[in-house]
Write a structure and sequence with these properties.
The protein has four helices and 53 strands. Helix content is about 5%, strand content about 55%. The strands form nine sheets. The protein has a 22-stranded antiparallel barrel. It has four domains: about 625 residues, TonB-dependent receptor, beta-barrel domain (Maltoporin, Chain A); about 100 residues, Carboxypeptidase-like, regulatory domain (Immunoglobulin-like); about 40 residues, no CATH class; about 130 residues, no CATH class. A hairpin with a 2-residue loop joins strand 35 and strand 36.
Length: about 900
């Protein structure tokens, strides 16, 4: 644990330095202004052309509907608006008190009561349902609450179906808790447009949600799995550096923006019951109430599952072998521990364990895999006055599960005389019970936001605060006895003994799969980890005349990760804690926007960021933590042109400039630090270290080909110059030990780029279909001379930067799919009666570490009554990679293929079981 946390904190130093420039390419949804789009139709649903639509509020203007009955208002400041539509022969329709806090669609339909008294139904929906993007960025929208009520429990299956979004799979190969697809402890860290997870910001109403969950590390990206699906009314995947948000921290690839449920127009309730892929039950309930000026939305959900079976072989070594076998003392030496642990052996200051080589396997320990998850939220909106509104929201989740370790590879070396059924060589074994241990974990999250929005003068003032807490509690208690099968050999108490590599008093013994009563020494360990993230947002936007607007915003964010532990055995006890890695970030943004015409908008922003990180002392001869300061600035430019209501052309560009922190320039002073009598380390000075720089652009367009058909296209490129990297190589000896010298340097140039295409045909009834696809690649354009090999050390320099694996950085299991696609084809009788087939394509280099493959799902929706419906989901119809648990995680093993001399092999993860799921929904 100490090594994990230590390296996590060291990684924080490197990751933030990269992020400080990479954040200059942030892609975040505009939030100080919005777009109001919509349609006008008659009582038969036919579009009404040439209707005059007027907007009244902080911005007042008017327009006319086109031939398809569509209208749009761009660059609308946040606030409350009235909309009126006047159509010949239909009269006037008024819609008042529309709260605009994001891009909003307004559908106006006339329903004549009499010739002289038309009745209007105006449906207002948030940007979660927007189908036509008129922002500078590329935006893909999902509705997490709706997904939860369809029986989904994981963000994974939602995000993987958005091209350009990766790392939503089973823990991206770096996290041991990622054994069960869609299990509550499976990390979901996303990457957008090729960037690493730590370069993709997760925001709640423009305030960064930093850190997260089990196996989290500062800078490793936000783990969405700890936050409830049923707690958010909308979520946007946003791409495009020209967007304007108060925060751009950690957003080179893009941003995932969460929104609490908004204003309620009418009272309603929902209840859904679903089956779980492993035989469990999923239940969700929602109640929404509108009482005068108060809107309340409450959700609650339960996922209770037995999980898949976890009965596994266990590799034994000198530390985790039985204490006695059938009452006789046992030692894992001689025939048992031919080689205790294997390390890849390439020269590096760190020696990662890569597997076991031994002569004893234990079978089979049945670990509990059941889990229970409770989640819920409450959101309140209150209109204090026509000019002031108050919002408060809470979303929380609690997950309980025995930690599922993935399978690993172990080389089994049977002793002479072995006649058992297990073959020699590499075996797929579970490390979940290395010590016959149970790893019950409680993981809880609490996300609390308060927000005031007020019209102040001619402008809009927004003040918000966010508190984000994560708590991870692990209580490990090993059993002391069990009845198990043994394969291989070891040393059993005997007289005279002392033969066959056994100690005096012990003699060799060979096990061929028989059943034995074994005991273990046992131990108890309690680990408490947590993260605390607090944000404060202050923003003011005001018009400057009829076509200009300007403003400023300030975001202060604080994050820390304390950890404590208690370890005890029958012979001793240890209690301790780790120094807290923390960061405090201040962002100031000034911006100006112009609307030269109703068809054109331009936004220009400049960010000034200062961050202080509490990181491990860089001096190898010192202990403890020091404070490091980082500063950067980043301009943004966004442009939207709407020649007609059916066409939007958008462009965005941005860059950044970040100074290298002082600690990277000066290195450490004093003598090298020698660890364990095996090697010594020192950090060298590099006074020639250059600032990091970046530049990115995104060009896109949205076209409405017909009333129910929309196509979107985007092309993007992000160039990074002089990224900071850490190089470690052998530079000689010190006190007779190998000396590893570490020095920060500038990488040359690296890049990600790609294209995105989305085509949708959606109708109230009839055939509907959709296709979306993306091509993405990331690569190193240039590196310094001698980057991979030096005269003093071959294949040991800069092993974490590997061409062809797309920006692996600190995380060797990360991969970015070169291509992704999603296709849907179905027939709809009405909103609740439909049938469709959905195919998801995962291209080469995908996050499952598999060759390119297609996964198919099918859905049948059927109304049972006026208020109840049934959804049948056929999951993974073809059964592709359908084991309920993953085979094994990426690892560095003996004999593995090499990339640039580095042993590097990726073992495929599983998609999930083929199953039929039932969901019933009741609406009141």
């Amino acid at each position: 644990m100490s090594q994990v946390i230590y390296h996590a904190r060291v990684a924080l130093l490197l990751l933030f330095i990269c992020c400080s420039t990479q954040a200059a390419l942030a892609q975040i949804a505009p939030t100080n202004s919005a777009t109001i789009s919509g349609s006008v139709s008659d009582s038969a649903g036919k579009p009404v052309a040439n209707a005059k639509v007027s907007l009244s509020g902080p911005k007042s203007t008017s327009t006319q509907t086109d031939a398809q009955g569509l209208f749009v208002f761009v660059s609308v400041p946040f606030g409350t608006y009235d909309i009126s539509a006047i159509a010949a022969g239909l009269g006037t329709a008024n819609r008042v008190d529309i709260s605009v806090q994001a891009d909003t669609n307004v559908a106006i339909q006339y329903e004549p009561v009499s010739a002289n008294e038309p009745k209007v139904i105006a449906n207002v929906s948030s940007n979660a349902h927007a189908q036509f993007n008129v922002t500078p960025a590329s935006v893909a929208q999902v509705n997490p609450i709706a997904q939860a009520f369809e029986g989904k429990t994981s963000w994974r299956t939602i995000l993987e179906q958005i091209p350009g979004v990766a790392q939503a799979g089973l823990g991206i190969g770096s996290y041991i808790s990622a054994a069960y697809p869609d299990g509550p402890l499976t990390p979901v860290r996303i990457s957008i447009n090729g960037a690493l997870p730590y370069e993709t910001a997760t925001l709640l109403d423009d305030m960064p949600i930093i850190g997260s969950g089990l196996d989290s590390a500062a800078g490793a990206g936000t783990d969405l799995s700890v936050y409830p699906l049923n707690g958010f009314g909308a979520a946007d995947v946003v791409r495009g550096p020209g967007a304007s948000s108060p925060s751009i921290v950690d957003s080179i690839g893009g941003s995932f923006v969460l929104h609490a449920p908004g204003v309620v127009n009418q009272n309603h309730s929902m209840l859904s019951l679903s089956t779980d892929p492993y035989g469990g039950i999923i239940a969700n309930i929602l109640t929404a109430v509108r009482w005068k000026k108060l809107s309340v939305v409450v959700t609650y959900g339960v996922n209770d599952s037995p999980g898949p079976t976890n009965q596994a072989l266990i590799p034994a070594d000198t530390f985790s072998s039985p204490s006695t076998v059938n009452g006789s003392s046992f030692l894992c030496t001689g025939l048992c521990a031919q080689t205790a642990l294997y390390s890849p052996g390439y020269a590096s200051a760190s020696f990662p364990l890569a597997g076991y080589r031994n002569g004893l396997l234990v079978c089979c320990y049945q670990a509990s895999t059941a889990w229970s998850q409770h989640s819920g939220s409450i959101a309140l909106h209150y209109d204090i006055s026509p000019d002031v509104s108050f919002d408060v929201s809470y979303a929380g989740q609690s997950s309980n599960q025995s930690e599922p370790y993935p399978d690993d590879a172990v080389t089994f070396t049977p002793p002479a005389g072995y006649t058992g059924s297990l073959p020699a060589g590499e075996q797929l074994l579970s490390t979940s019970g290395v010590y016959l241990a149970s790893y019950p974990i409680q993981l809880t999250s609490s996300l609390f936001e308060e927000k005031v929005t007020a019209r102040l003068g001619n402008g809009i003032l927004r003040l918000a605060a966010l508190q984000n807490r994560i708590f991870d509690f692990q209580a490990i208690s090993t059993p002391t006895s069990a009845t198990l099968q043994l394969f291989g050999g070891g040393c059993i108490a005997s007289s005279p003994g002392g033969t066959g590599g056994c100690s005096a008093g012990y003699a060799p013994i060979v096990f061929n799969g028989g059943t034995y009563n074994v005991t273990y020494s046992g131990f108890n360990e309690v680990i408490s980890e947590g993260s605390n993230n607090r944000d404060l947002l202050l923003e003011y936007t005001t018009p400057l005349g009829g076509n200009l607007r300007a403003g400023a915003s300030f975001v202060r964010s604080y994050y820390d990760t304390p950890c404590s532990f208690t370890y005890s055995t029958s012979s001793f006890s240890l209690i301790g804690s780790y120094s807290s890695a923390s960061q405090t970030t201040n962002e100031l943004r000034v911006f100006v926007g112009a609307t030269p015409s109703d068809k054109t908008s331009i936004d220009l922003s400049e960010y000034f960021v200062n961050a202080g990180y509490h990181v491990p002392n860089p001096s190898p001869t010192s202990v403890g933590y020091v404070n490091s300061q980082y500063t950067y600035d980043a301009p943004r430019l966004g442009f939207v042109w709407r020649p007609t209501a059916a066409v939007a052309v958008r462009a965005s560009a941005g860059g950044g400039f970040a100074e290298a922190p002082l600690g990277d320039l000066v290195g450490s002073n004093g003598n090298p630090n020698c660890l364990g009598g095996t090697y010594c380390t020192v950090t060298l000075t590099n006074l020639n270290l250059q600032p990091e720089k970046s530049f990115a652009f995104d060009l896109g367009t949205d076209l409405r080909l017909r009333r129910n058909m929309v196509v979107s296209f985007d092309v993007y490129r992000s160039n990074l110059y002089g990224q900071l990297y850490k190089s470690t190589l052998v530079t000689g000896t010190y006190l007779g030990l190998p000396l590893y010298s570490t020095q920060w340097g500038n990488l040359g140039e690296s890049r990600y780029e790609g294209v995105l295409l989305d085509l949708r045909h959606d109708v109230p009834h009839g055939i509907y279909w959709a296709f979306s696809g993306g091509l993405t690649r990331g690569y190193v354009v240039s590196v310094p001379a001698g980057f991979y090999n030096t005269a003093t050390c071959t294949n040991c320099n800069n092993l974490t930067v590997v061409p062809g694996i797309n920006f692996n950085g600190q995380f060797t299991g990360v991969s970015v799919p070169y291509s992704q696609a999603l296709g849907t084809f179905g027939y709809r009788w009405n909103s609740e009666k439909y049938i469709d087939l959905v195919g998801t394509y995962y291209g080469n280099n995908n996050t499952y570490f598999r060759p390119a493959f297609v996964e198919l799902d099918g859905h049948i929706g059927y109304p049972l009554s006026r208020h109840a419906s049934l959804l049948v989901t056929f999951r993974n119809i073809t059964g592709i990679y359908d084991s309920p648990t993953q085979i094994r995680t990426p690892d560095n093993l003996s004999g593995s293929p090499t990339i640039s001399g580095l042993p590097y092999v990726l073992y495929g993860e599983m998609y999930g079981p083929r199953t039929v799921l039932l969901t019933s929904v009741v609406r009141l």
